[in-house]
Design goal:
single chain; 14 helices; 5-stranded mixed beta sheet; two-stranded antiparallel sheet
């Protein structure tokens, strides 16, 4: 049997393996544990392994490449369409073989250990931030029940909570005071952990030329630049800035037919974390541009465009449009290896 393609449905404990010939016909199936799957890969002739880009896929992709195999990671949402009838592990493995025949399905590059480490630090910081916000909201709710209103915003909210805790006769029951203090201590600890992670991320990307070049773009600081650098990996896999913006989910959702074209809100597909970072970066750029405009300071072409869009379409839509444009600028800056120039189009003309 001349096996050329092997579909692997990854799982926590047991892997489903489907071995196909040169015509993509499944010839054999196996259900293997971690250890048996590792031996299977080491003893099998050089083949193409196809897996979904899910948990542990990049780890196994690196191991398979070390053994001399070819590896193709496919997005899970594209493989789903090839599952026949009921969903089972065997059907998923066969669907991977069928999906590998479609050249239009983009492959996901196998991440290095360093890329995954930086990405995990980003995810860890986001979890700390979510826990911190949850604790602050819990404190707001507790104090609101006794008539103490806490203002919005992390800094203002924490200051108001500390002041409420220091006042003895403001209606806060004595049995709740130690727990409010305990939650405040936890919030402070979470903020310290976030700061440590941010400092470590800055140190890790200090020598990265791509990250340093991306940081010349307005709204793209260390977190945004390192997050995009880690998630994208190879910018060459995107044909244009529009493809990158669409991959992040910053383009409009389309529902068109015949001669009627309908564009809706942003698709929100792709990486939620990257989209959040770019939208927050765009929000900061727009706010800074508004302050400069009120102060009568000069603005470059990008900021003038953002202000004109906000005046014409509203602040929120302008923020998303600017995030879309930042994604395209990131692509051009990275792909063509040039620093950001807010008036590049004018100078090029």
């Amino acid at each position: 049997m001349d096996a050329t393609t092997i579909g692997v449905d990854l799982a926590k404990n047991v892997f489903e393996v489907a071995v196909a010939d040169e015509r993509y016909r499944v010839q054999s199936r196996q259900r293997l544990t971690h250890a048996r799957f590792a031996r299977f890969c080491a003893n099998h002739p050089k083949s193409e392994f196809v897996m979904e880009a899910c948990g542990s896929a990049h780890y196994w992709g690196r191991r398979l490449k070390e053994l001399g195999h070819e590896v193709r990671l496919l997005p899970a949402q594209y493989v789903k369409a090839y599952v026949k009838r009921n969903k089972t592990d065997a059907a998923d493995a066969a669907a991977l073989i069928e999906a590998s025949r479609c050249a239009d399905i983009p492959s996901v590059p196998v991440k290095s250990v360093e890329q995954q480490a930086v990405q995990q630090l980003h995810r860890l910081r986001e979890q700390f931030k979510g826990t911190r916000n949850a604790r602050i909201n819990q404190l707001r709710g507790m104090l609101r029940e006794v008539g103490i209103v806490i203002p919005q915003g992390v800094a203002k909210g924490l200051t108001a909570i500390r002041e409420a805790l220091a006042i003895a006769d403001n209606g806060l029951p004595d049995m709740l005071r130690p727990w409010v203090a305990q939650l405040l201590e936890e919030v402070t600890h979470l903020k310290e952990l976030m700061s440590r992670l941010e400092r470590e991320l800055k140190m890790l990307v200090r020598e990265d030329a791509v990250v340093q070049r991306l940081m010349t773009i307005p709204g793209v600081a260390e977190l945004v630049a390192s997050g995009v650098r880690t998630a994208v990996g190879d910018i060459q896999r995107f044909k244009s800035g529009r493809h990158l913006a669409s991959w992040i989910g910053l383009t409009a959702r389309e529902h068109s037919s015949a001669e009627r074209r309908r564009l809706g809100r942003m698709s929100k597909e792709g990486d939620t974390y990257l989209r959040m970072l770019l939208i927050n970066g765009a929000r900061s750029v727009l706010a800074a541009a508004q302050r400069k405009q009120r102060a009568g300071q000069p603005l470059d072409g990008l900021r003038r465009w953002a202000l004109a869009t906000a005046q014409r379409r509203g602040h929120n839509k302008a923020t998303v449009a600017l995030a879309n444009k930042l994604a395209r600028i990131i692509w051009a800056t990275w792909r063509h290896e040039r620093p950001f120039d807010g008036n590049w189009a004018l100078s090029a003309a």
